[in-house]
Amino acid sequence: MKIATWNVNSVKARLGHLLDWLDEAGPDVVLLQETKCLDQDFPRLELETRGWHLALRGQKTYNGVAVLSRLPIVEEVRQLAGDDGEARYLEAKLANGMRVASIYVPMGQSTASDRFPFKLSFLDSLRSRTAQLLESEESLVLGGDYNVAPEAADVFDVQAMDGQVLFHPEERRRFRRLLFLGLTDAFRALHSEPHSYSWWDYRGGAWQRDLGLRIDHLLLSPQAADRLVSSGIDKGPRSKDKCSDHTPVWCELS
Question: What CA–CA distance (Å, rounded) separates 79 from 164?
Fold first, then answer.
C-alpha cells in the first residue's frame, strides 16, 4: 500500500500535475493540503471517474485538506480541537481498517506574529488527538505539511534558519513530542542522508540552488511502522512549469 502526502498549493491550479502524478506514481492513498477551494468546487468528477474515493474539508482561497483513497472511506473526522475553524485537519478511516489524516500545520508567518502561538497550540492539539488515536492500536498514518524541519539535516543552512519560523526550537520540540508518543518518521526511518527536501521557496532560485527544507512528513503508528518497506521524496513534480512549491513524500507499507 503506497501512501503519499502533497501540499498541492491549489488543487484546481495544479490539477493537471496532480492527475499526471497519480497516473505515474500509482499511490493508493494521497493526503493533500492547501487545496484552496470549497468542497463544492473540488474537482470531484475528474478524480472519482478515475476510481478515487474522496474525503474533503475545503476553505475558500486558503488552507483546505483532502484524502484520496483507492479504498472506500468509511469514517471521517473533520475537525481538530484548537484549529479555530480553519480547514487544516481531516481524518479518514479506510475500508481495510487503516486510519489516515491529512494535516496542514499553520506556517506561523514569523516568530513575532500572533500566528506563531497559534501554530504551537495547533501542534499541541495534534499531539493530544494523536495520543487518543494511538490508544486504539490501529494502523495510523498522519501525513501532511507540518511546516517544521525537525533536524539540522532537514534544512539547507542551519545558521540562517536557526530560531526562524519552520526551524524554531519550540516547533521542533513539539514535533519531537509527537514522535515520542511512539510515531515513526517514515522517510527518516529509511534515509539517513542530509539535504533531502520536500519544499523549496519560489524566490531566490531556491529550487535551482537546492535551498530547501524537509517539512512534509508521514508519521506512522507502531502498527503501521512494522509494515514499512520503502519511502521517498518524489522531486519530479517540483521541476514542472507552474508547479507547487512542495513535492510529494511517500511511503509503502506491506
Answer: 28
With b meaning 16 or more CB within 10 Å and e meaning fewer, what string describes 156-178?
beeeebeeebbbbebbbebbeeb
Report the CATH number at residue 6: 3.60.10.10
- Contact 123/181 with Cβ under 8 angstroms? no
Task: Assign 161 to helix, strand or coil.
Answer: helix
146 is annotated as an active-site residue:
no
Q: What is the pLDDT of residue 4?
A: 99
Residues of the chain with pLDDT under 70: none
Which of these is catalytic: 83, 89, 104, 216?
A: 104
**The pLDDT value given to residue 150:** 98
Domain holding 128, by residue range, is 2-253
Catalytic residue among 28, 84, 114, 145: 145
Q: Name the grid cell of 238.
A: 517540483
Nearest CA to 244 out of 22, 26, 33, 2 is that of: 33
Judge whether 104 counts as a catalytic residue. Answer: yes
- Tally of domains within the chain: 1
Residue with cell 479555530: 84
DSSP 109: S
> For residues 168 and 106, what is the distance between their CA atoms, to the nearest angstrom?
14
Matching residue, cell 539547507: 156
